[in-house]
Amino acid sequence: MSYDEPLRLPAAAIPDDCRDWTAGRAASWSAALPSRWTFLRVRRSIAGAVTTLALCAGAWAAMLGGLWPFVAAGFAVYVLWVLARPELVWAGAPALLLGLAVQASSLPWAVTAVGAFVVVASWAAVAVRLRARGAQVEQALEAAGDGTAQVPDAQAPVRRGRFLLPLGLVVLVLGVLTGVTAHLWGTVDDQRGSWVMAFYLTGLGLTALVSAWLGRHRAVALRRAPAPVLRVLVRDDAQGTTEVYAADDLAATRPLFTVELTSYDGESDEDEDEDEEDEGEGEPGIAGAGAGIEAVDGAGAAEELERLLDAVDDGVPGPVREAVLFGAPFDGAEVVVLSADEDADQPPLTEWSAGPVRPLSPSAGVRHIAREKAREEQNRQLERQARESVVDRAPAPVRRWRAGWLDWVAAALLVQWGVWLTWAGFTEAELPSWKLGLAAALGLYGAARVPVKLAWRITADRSGLWVTGLRGPRHVPWDDIRSVRRRSFELKLRWRDDDWSVAAPRWAWFERRRGLVHPYDALAAELSAMRKDPALRPTGESTTPERGRPLWPLAVVLALVWAAVLVVWG
Prior knowledge:
By secondary structure, the chain is an alpha+beta fold. The protein contains 15 helices and 17 strands.
């Protein structure tokens, strides 16, 4: 569906004295953003990779170089704070510097100097980033002027932090258990490594708890008093993240910031409360009626989830919509967005922050849109090529796709990783029973994954798809297929109430440079064309041999081989 202009927000939904956040005023806000070297916007994958690298380096230094486990784990947690939670750096940097200073006499001077330099330099970068937040707030308040309003659904339950709070508690408990059982490890090096992991998990748990409290605190503060309001434009990108644009950027050429949003359905919560009260009364028939309502609500929630997943898997950004932004935006802020619904018959949509505001500099915003357009164009080109290849090809009774050399490489990498991990951690002459159990678990995981990577098969006939698995091929009717997409390294097929995926190496830069098409892209494009146009589907019925065989026999063989290795080894 195409839209010539933004979807309009009803005038009655716009607060009085609400100003347009025009491109000119927004430019002043963007000018207040700190430089890129302050780690303003780091991808989650990069933050996770850098943190993991810091943890591995710290564990190695603790086991071989005598670094205190607390300092080794603290350095990894500190890296995560610098990249993802800068508010905590003010407490982490002094503590880490103190630990390095106390242990300086027992460490090489180069290690102490490099560690101190990294901490001080990152501390300074974070200080610049946090100081810039005040200028961002000032520019946002100046743009809003006297326009303020109470946020919609201010009396609704605050949901911010509901996920991070239990997650942080679980990780914290795991860290404590790891420390309590550290003495059970065989060697001194293993015990030191266990303490590093214990302190690291404890740091992660505390980070999640503080993040939950901070997000909830800001969300509650946003409700207490009338908040600044600004008229903006919003759009959901292909991954479901909301992009916010200036009110006069009708073509959506430069996003100001992105934010994860979640909607609040007050009616469903009220219904749940009423159901609980009715069930508590114990009257005959009420419990059954409550169960029926619960089933209906569950079905509606499942349909809504399917709709959202369909929108994300569609791979196409949503329409540009008029919206009102509640709250002064800055790096890490909590906001509320009241926007026009994509369905014109529905009332305006109220959405709360599910994550912090993540600003985009002017150049980063342009690159962001350029990548989105390039991805859209690539998807359209692949679908066009797939459709042309299917139309030009003589009708086939059955179409089949199977694992290729890239999948075999992925299987080899998985096996190599498992062998290396086992060899690195279990090289003792007599392994304790817990290490043998862990090695057996790793082997069972590999035995279940390797056959799928080596021998997966998708067969298409006129009735639908047949997808191989450990227990045998599964039938997926055409009408049940929701999407077929390649996401990063993964090919994912999603159908009603279930999904299937397989992963293989991919080098996007090399593919673009050489004009190559990844096999997963070609497969996804062809299946998507068949899904949308029944005339392109195969015309016959597949036979049992064509659908593939169960993969569990190969998995059993691999598991037995691994068990034999452990018996000989142990």
